[in-house]
Amino acid sequence: MSGWDQYITNLTSQGITHAGIFGADGSRWAASPNFPSIDNLKDELPKAFSLQPSGIVVDREKYIYIRNDGTFAVFRKGADGMAIVKLNQAYIISIGINQKPEILVGKTNKIGEYLKSCGY
């Protein structure tokens, strides 16, 4: 178990279905078991924070862009939500089945703020 796994365990223990930490280059630092595939992850993560994001495809299902504030981006697919928190060197992705994205943001952003304070 890598040191990053503790943050994934923290998120999934709070009811988040899937969580992952990925480097700015798209490399996987840690992820929950069965973390879904995201098409073109390396290119999609920065786009989530662009001026014209359109959505992200997760396991061939498109999550529609809702909003971002520069530090986090929120997406939705039906009753499912996704939050992406931007760190200095990485991104944290949380996906919740039947969970509002706003709840995901709150939980994911707490860990993101901590990791940013540590230089990540």
UniProtKB/TrEMBL annotation:
One of its GO terms (molecular function) is actin monomer binding. Pfam families: Profilin. It is found in: Cytoplasm, Cytoskeleton. Keywords: Actin-binding, Cytoplasm, Cytoskeleton. GO terms for cellular component: cell cortex; cytoskeleton. The keyword Cytoplasm applies. It comes from the Eukaryota. Its main location: cytoplasm. Occurs in many kinds of cells as a complex with monomeric actin in a 1:1 ratio. PANTHER family: PROFILIN. This is Profilin.
